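Q: Here's a chain of 268 amino acids. Please give me its 3D structure as tokens.
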Amino acid sequence: MRQGPPRSLLIGRQTECRKLTSAIKTRESFLVWGPADAGKTTLTKMIIGGFPEPERRNCIYWTGAASVRQLVAELVRGLYVAGDALVRNKVWQDGCGDGSLNRWLRDQTSGRLKVLLYAATKAGRYWIFLDHFPPATHTMAGFIKQIIWRCKTPVYLLARGCSHAEIGYAWSIYFTPQYHVSLGPLPDSSARELLEHCIHRFGLSSLDLQGFREEMLRLSQHNPGSIVKMSEMASNARYQYGDQIKLALVHVDYLMRAGIPNGRFGTQ
């Protein structure tokens, strides 16, 4: 591992960081779950960013929803970009390359792509990360199990949710505490420390902050992503009137951008 990440990204998350880092180093599949803006993506990408470049390149990262067919294609694309010899040779044998990779992926059947994916990942060089993943269907969970157990390739699932139902059938993979960590709101002292860091980072200290800290903590519900994003928004002149911060407007616009219904972050 390279030099450690910025201290500010670890505020209140040292234990979770150690657990996830250990799981990645030992190639143990792992679930990171919690409400929106609890810091799942930030924590994971921070750890990956500390890897030596060859290992970092072998981290195949997918964000968002996908059918099994779409996910298989995107993972094969990730292997191609990572320079996997087996995948690249197959694409080149079919007369395709970087510029025609999209067309090649569309032309392949799901079965052919799965065979190629399984063959390439059996070498045990890769880590697969699935971020902002919706509740897994029975079919999707079965596919993930094939990658983990048949191909000996760890899958790290980052799921927005606070219940087993929001994880879906993938819960059967990560059912013990050894295989998952839950990211909830920060403890009060850590949330306040992060907020002070953000006030300094985004140049808010020159503004009138009377009542700002307590209101920010209340609106963010101590979720680190919410604290950082709303603090950054508050530094924009659009959200200021003289030396006052229009925090209510910041909060409304933040919720709209984040797509959080009714202002509910979720609870653990």
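Q: Can you summarize the key feature?
A: The beta strands are 30-34, 59-63, 127-131, 155-160, 180-182, 240-241, 244-245.
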